[in-house]
Design goal:
By secondary structure, the protein is α/β, with parallel strands linked by helices. It folds into 2 domains: about 200 residues, Class I glutamine amidotransferase (GATase) domain (Rossmann fold, 3-Layer(aba) Sandwich), CATH 3.40.50.880; about 100 residues, Homeodomain-like (Arc Repressor Mutant, subunit A), CATH 1.10.10.60. The chain has 15 helices and 11 strands. The chain has a 7-stranded mixed β-sheet, with helices on both faces. The protein has a two-stranded antiparallel sheet with strand order 3-4. A two-stranded parallel sheet has the order 8-9. β8, α5 and β9 form a beta-alpha-beta unit. α1 runs parallel beside α6, α1 packs across α7 and α10 crosses α11.
C-alpha cells in the first residue's frame, strides 16, 4: 500500500456510528465479480474505520452456491426472518445465468424485509426479484441489459434505466461489477459522507490501471452512450461483444463510439475492453484456484498464448508469475 494511504488506517472511527449489517443472498450462478466488488468496498471501509460494517452471506437453503465462474461459495447461513431482523441492507446477487423465475420463499423474505424498513439491493439481475416481489414500484432501478425488458414487463410502475447503477432511497441496484462498486460507494456516502468514500477510493486505486476509469467523479461526467458502451463491456467479459454488436446495442456508429472513447477517456474501445478483461483475469488469478486456461476462457481469451501475450504486455510479466492466493476454490466436475 502506498505511504500516502497509511494515514487512513488509524484503526479508530473518526466519528461515532452504529454498526451497519449487510447481508448478501447468493443465487445460483451469481456474478462473482459483482459480489466481490461490493464486498471489497465494505471490507476496505472497515480498514479505515473499524466496526463500520458487518457482512454475512446467505443462501435460501444454507447449501453452497456455484457462481458464474464455476467457483463454489459456502454461505454463512440460511436466510430466514430471524437473520433479516439483524440487517440494514439485503443484497440479492444474481448473474447472467441466474434463472428469472418466481421463488415464493424469496418473495416472502423480500416483502418481510421491506416491511421492516430494511434497504434492498440487487446486483446484475437481482433487481428482477425485487420487481417480482412488487418492491420497485415508484423506484428507479438498474439491471443487466439482457434483463431490462423482463424487468420492465414485471415491474411496470418502476423506471428501468440504462445506468450501471441506481441508488433510489432504500432500493439499490447495479447492472455490472463496476456498477456494484459505485453503488456501494454511494450507499456508504449517504451514511458516512464523502470523506470515507474518498479514502476508500484512494486505497482501492493503488492499482491505478484497474480503477482509473471507474471513479464515480469521472463516471458521472461520461455521456449516456459511452456509459452504455462501458456497461455492456463490463457485463460481457467471458464472451466479448464485437465492435459491430456494441455499436448496434448502443445505437451509435462504430466511428461515433470510437470518437466518444477518444474524447472522454483518451483511449480506443478495443483497448478499453481489453483492459477490462485483463484486470478481471488478474483478479481471478490472485483470488481463485482456477487453472490458467480456465481463467483465460472466463475473460474471453480463446488462445492461452494470446492471453499470455496480452497479460505480459499490460503488467510486464507473464500470468504464470502472478501471485496465487487461492482464497476461493474452484469446483471440479467429475
Amino acid at each position: 500500500m502506498q505511504g500516502r494511504n497509511l494515514r487512513y488506517l488509524d484503526g479508530e472511527a473518526t466519528e461515532p456510528g452504529r454498526l451497519a449489517r449487510v447481508g448478501f443472498l447468493l443465487l445460483e450462478h451469481f456474478s462473482l465479480p459483482a459480489f466481490t466488488q461490493a464486498l471489497d468496498t465494505l471490507v476496505t471501509a472497515n480498514l479505515i474505520r473499524t466496526q463500520t460494517f458487518a457482512t454475512e452471506t446467505f443462501s435460501l437453503d444454507g447449501e453452497s452456491v456455484t457462481s458464474d465462474l464455476g467457483l463454489v461459495i459456502c454461505p454463512d447461513a440460511t436466510l430466514s426472518s430471524v437473520q433479516l431482523a439483524e440487517l440494514d441492507l439485503l443484497v440479492v446477487c444474481g448473474g447472467l445465468r441466474t434463472p428469472l423465475r418466481a421463488i415464493p420463499e424469496l418473495t416472502r423474505l423480500l416483502q418481510t424485509a421491506a416491511d421492516k424498513g430494511i434497504a434492498l439491493a440487487g446486483l446484475w439481475n437481482g433487481a428482477w426479484f425485487l420487481g417480482q416481489a412488487g418492491l420497485l414500484d415508484g423506484y428507479r432501478c438498474a439491471i443487466h441489459p439482457e434483463n431490462r425488458a423482463a424487468l420492465a414487463e414485471i415491474a411496470r410502475h418502476s423506471e428501468v434505466t440504462s445506468e450501471s447503477y441506481q441508488a433510489d432511497r432504500d432500493r439499490l441496484s447495479a447492472a455490472s461489477p463496476t456498477g456494484a462498486f459505485n453503488l456501494v460507494l454511494e450507499w456508504i456516502n449517504a451514511r458516512h459522507g464523502r470523506e470515507l468514500v474518498d479514502a476508500i477510493v484512494d486505497i482501492l486505486a493503488f492499482e491505478e490501471s484497474r480503477f482509473r476509469r471507474t471513479r464515480p467523479s469521472l463516471h458521472e461526467k461520461l455521456s449516456e452512450p459511452l456509459r452504455e458502451a462501458i456497461n455492456l463491456m463490463s457485463a460481457n467479459i467471458e464472451e466479448p461483444l464485437s465492435q459491430d454488436q456494441l455499436s448496434s446495442y448502443v445505437g451509435r456508429s462504430k466511428r461515433q463510439i470510437e470518437r466518444l472513447f477518444q474524447e472522454q477517456l483518451g483511449t480506443t474501445p478495443v483497448r478499453y475492453y481489453l483492459e477490462l478483461r485483463i484486470t478481471e483475469s488478474r483478479r481471478l488469478l490472485q483470488h481463485s484456484s482456477l487453472p490458467m486456461v480456465e481463467v483465460a476462457l472466463a475473460c474471453g481469451f480463446v488462445s492461452p498464448s494470446h492471453f499470455s501475450k496480452c497479460y505480459t504486455s499490460f503488467y510486464g510479466y507473464s500470468p504464470s508469475k502472478e501471485a496465487r492466493h487461492g482464497c476461493v476454490k474452484a469446483q471440479r466436475n467429475v
